[in-house]
């Protein structure tokens, strides 16, 4: 499956923009079917679904129960795993529509090859659009991928990732490339994970190991931390040492412009 940004995103993608700086639309072919995604979002983003609007439409024939399951699966792996500022609003929406005009045998549920192919395509591009919302975050200068590994459940991994991603202290530190990385560990500790053992926690940013077994890595220096916080795209991995589950969250930094945009903007 290949996905390409459309040269001329559909009018609807432009029509739903607010503080977005560009429209967000993608379309792919999967077998005989076409899937098209449209989304908007830039601020007030922590889906639940925030001021994000999303539409996934396909001409494939998909059963109602399979489509409902796919909508939840796609949302949880994409739009529900992003945050710009931790704020939500009343009009957030994700719609998944299947018209059946491709006249394929109806896709009836999980476990079939056809459902697997469809869900892989839907989730992959939903993640691209969700990430596009974060990249277009109000005033954002950095795109940050947070992976939490070795959790007891995916839910606790997601909780830890969101706590880090929504911490103003963490977000402003990344804006300034300030290696005050104890802020990340404080966010992990504040995530409400019961029986969390600090001595099992690890932290890596880019290719730099910052924390091992709950303590500062022996070879780590603040100069290394500052260097890996400077790029426009940053990845970090937190290991909890509690199990085999994992979750990834995408977020951005807080800049001066975020304050300016929201001080001046009124809908």
Using only C-alpha atoms, the radius of gyration works out to 20 Å
- Beta strand %: 15-25%
Q: State the helicity in percent bands.
A: 25-40%
For the record, give the distance between the C-alpha atoms at the N and C termini, rounded to a whole number: 39 Å
* Number of E-state strands: 11
Quickly give the structural class.
Answer: alpha+beta
Which overall shape is indicated by the principal axes computed on the Cα atoms? globular
Largest sheet: 6 strands, mixed
List low-confidence stretches.
1-9
What would your notes on this structure say?
With 267 residues, this protein is of the alpha+beta class. Helices cover 33% and strands 24% of the residues. The protein has helices at 11-15, 64-77, 113-135, 154-165, 168-176, 182-189, 222-228, 256-264, and strands spanning 4-5, 24-30, 33-40, 53-58, 93-98, 143-151, 202-205, 208-212, 215-216, 233-239, 245-252. The strands form two sheets. Strands 9-8-7-10-6-11 form a six-stranded mixed β-sheet. It has a five-stranded mixed β-sheet with strand order 1-2-3-4-5. α2 runs parallel beside α3 and α4 crosses α6 (182-189). The longest helix is centred in the middle third of the chain and has 23 residues, at 113-135. The protein is globular and about 60 Å long. The two termini are 39 Å apart. Residues 1-9 have low confidence and may be disordered.
């Amino acid at each position: 499956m290949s996905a390409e940004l459309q040269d001329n995103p559909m009018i609807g993608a432009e029509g739903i923009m607010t503080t977005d700086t560009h429209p967000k639309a993608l379309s792919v072919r999967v077998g005989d079917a076409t899937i098209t995604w449209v989304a908007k979002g830039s601020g007030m983003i922590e889906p639940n679904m925030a001021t994000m609007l999303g539409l996934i439409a396909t001409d494939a024939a998909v059963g109602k129960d399979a489509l409902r399951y796919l909508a939840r699966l796609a949302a949880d792996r994409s739009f529900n795993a992003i945050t710009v500022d931790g704020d939500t609003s009343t009009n957030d929406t994700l719609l998944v529509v299947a018209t059946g005009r491709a006249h394929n045998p109806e896709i009836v549920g999980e476990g079939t090859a056809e459902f697997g192919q469809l869900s892989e395509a839907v989730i992959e591009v939903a993640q691209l659009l969700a990430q596009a919302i974060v990249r277009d975050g109000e005033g954002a200068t950095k795109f940050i991928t947070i992976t939490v590994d070795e959790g007891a459940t995916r839910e606790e991994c997601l909780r830890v990732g969101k706590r880090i991603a929504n911490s103003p202290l963490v977000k402003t530190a990344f804006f300034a490339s300030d290696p005050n990385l104890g802020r990340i560990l404080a966010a992990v500790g504040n995530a409400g994970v019961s029986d969390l053992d600090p001595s099992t926690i690890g932290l890596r940013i880019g290719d730099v190991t910052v924390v091992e077994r709950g303590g500062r890595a022996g070879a780590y220096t603040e100069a290394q931390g500052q260097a890996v916080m400077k790029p426009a795209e940053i990845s970090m991995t937190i290991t909890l040492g509690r199990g085999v589950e994992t979750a990834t969250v995408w977020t951005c930094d807080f800049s001066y412009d975020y304050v300016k945009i929201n001080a001046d903007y009124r809908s």
